[in-house]
Amino acid sequence: MAMERVTVPLVIGLFVAVLSLLAEHCLADGGGPSLAERVIWAVNAGGEAHTDMHGIHFKKDPLEGKLGKASDYGMRLPILRSSPEDQILYQTERYNEDTFGYEVPIREEGDYILVMKYAEVYFAQSQQKVFDVRLNDHVVVKDLDIFDRVGHSTAHDEIVPFSIRRGKLSVQGEVSTFNGKLTVEFVKGYYDNPKVCALYVMKGTLDDVPKLQPHPGLEKREELEEEEEEEIEAGEEGGKKSTSTAPKYRVQSGPRTPNPYAADNSSLMFPILVAFGVFIPTLFCLCRL
């Protein structure tokens, strides 16, 4: 009996200890809500419902038959930077000949991220489709030219962090009253029609957003742009003009044109004199004939 009295508490103690270790392990491994659980709203614009590789469920476009036009023109193209199973999110889209958008109900305060998915599948050059994006009347993306950003048939995500606290929406340094609805608008510009391929809203920070697959050309371009920005900032801090240092990746159109009055033209006169000396005797002989 004495052995049983000792054994039962010991087993219970070991069981509790194991549970505690498992709980600590789960917390250490980020045992909070999964990415899919953090997403509060997601839509596959112009397309059917789809669950992506991260478990995010994009519902069928609620604007179908109500506003704008759906297009699956991109279905004939592979989309770079996107996984094969999720290319559908970039191959369908909704566009409109005027400003249009979606309303997202948000009931809880906190930090949020708006992710908008794009791919240019029609135009083959920049300045063909350019538009803005507004978030509750705040312009959060200005002059979006998808082709200029990433080229043709290439996935591009626009990511906009914002927060809601005490009835106020804060985004990109601006604050406005929040009434429980987030309005995402794609604003008609001077070049063609605004559009979107898919979008979702999630709780979290920028670090929580899944990254697109790498694109060597784009990564090199981004690195060079960052180097240029650093050089400009360094020049400004040193009191120098930013124009004094040319960006490394820009190729000059050609050598500088020399001063024509500073050049020595004596070398050009010799062949002219020789030609003139040959021409005169030849002309004299022709006249004798």
UniProtKB/TrEMBL annotation:
Per the record, its GO cellular-component terms are: endoplasmic reticulum membrane
Point to the regions of Acidic residues compositional bias.
224-236
Top-level taxon of the source organism: Eukaryota
* Chain segments annotated as transmembrane: 268-287
Q: Which GO terms describe its molecular function?
A: carbohydrate binding
- Residue ranges of every copy of the Malectin domain listed in the record: 39-199
Q: Which residues form the signal peptide?
A: 1-28
In this chain, the stretch annotated as Disordered covers 211-258
Q: Which Gene3D superfamilies match?
A: Galactose-binding lectin
From the Swiss-Prot or TrEMBL record, state where the protein is found: Endoplasmic reticulum membrane
Keyword terms, alphabetized: Carbohydrate metabolism, Endoplasmic reticulum, Glycoprotein, Membrane, Signal, Transmembrane, Transmembrane helix
Cross-referenced InterPro entries: Malectin_dom, MLEC
As for membrane topology, the entry says: Single-pass type I membrane protein
Q: Which family does it belong to?
A: Belongs to the malectin family.
Name this protein carries in UniProt: Malectin domain-containing protein
Organism the protein comes from: Esox lucius (Northern pike)
